[in-house]
């Protein structure tokens, strides 16, 4: 088994819990942060990569010594983490135990791009064909880039109907909501169409089936998309299942990929 320590911080982000404990229950709560810590960075990345398949709505965090070499060469081959990983620096060989520091690092993470949102949804649904049409919707509301590509909103909606109930306008609303959840606490408003609090409240009720104060209590944007997919029954809520960690060939392949990136750098 790949050696590392994975710790979960679930809302309200006060008390850490071991990942194994939560996996014996109903799974990771929406908005969870998962910190990977260990002496072998490659092994920790392997664990976080495996987790991204089991619980893609969790925010992956990696503890690194302050003197650690840059991660970019390793992340080039770990596409599941490349856009989402939060790095938390620790001093010396000590484990990270300042949970408020982790929360601060996650809050400072850049808001997702249209491409990142579309890629996440496509992977979650295991429908790669939906990625480009989704990216067009997100680009329109986040960047002001027209999404027509020769297609009307109705045409896009008919295309999306093959995958579920959300229309083109629904996906655009979800893009705005996800970015707001990721950047709202910092007051960051880099979207083409800023979203009002009233609209956020309406979207939270419609797409997430929860009041706004619960949205404000959670960190990250991945959980917003996950909750919206569950609300519309694109995916089923996680049920109890045995803990799974990468072993054997799967784990070794991840390790070989990251080791190859390290050596080539």
Number of strands: 5
Q: What sequence of helices (H) and strands (E) makes up the elements?
A: EEHEHEHHEHHHHHHHHH
Mean pLDDT: 83
Structural class: alpha/beta
**Count of the separate structural domains:** 2
Helix content: 40-55%
Overall radius of gyration: 19 Å
Instruction: Provide the low-confidence segments as ranges.
Output: 240-251, 261-265
Number of helices: 13
User: Could you say which overall geometry the principal axes of the C-alpha atoms support?
Assistant: globular
Strand-residue fraction? 5-15%
How far is the first residue's CA from the last residue's CA?
Answer: 26 Å
Strand order of the largest sheet: 2-1-3-4-5
Give the biggest sheet.
5 strands, mixed
Detailed description of the structure:
By secondary structure, this protein is an alpha/beta fold. The protein folds into two domains: about 5-110 and about 240-265, no CATH class; about 115-220, no CATH class. The chain is built from 13 helices and five strands. It has helices at about 20-25, 40-55, 70-75, 80, 100-110, 115-125, 130-145, 155-160, 170-185, 195-210, 210-215, 220-230, 250-265; strands spanning about 5-10, 15-20, 35, 60-65, 85-90. It has a five-stranded mixed sheet with strand order 2-1-3-4-5, sandwiched between helices. A hairpin with a 6-residue loop joins β1 (about 5-10) and β2. α7 crosses α9 and α9 (about 170-185) crosses α10. The protein is globular.
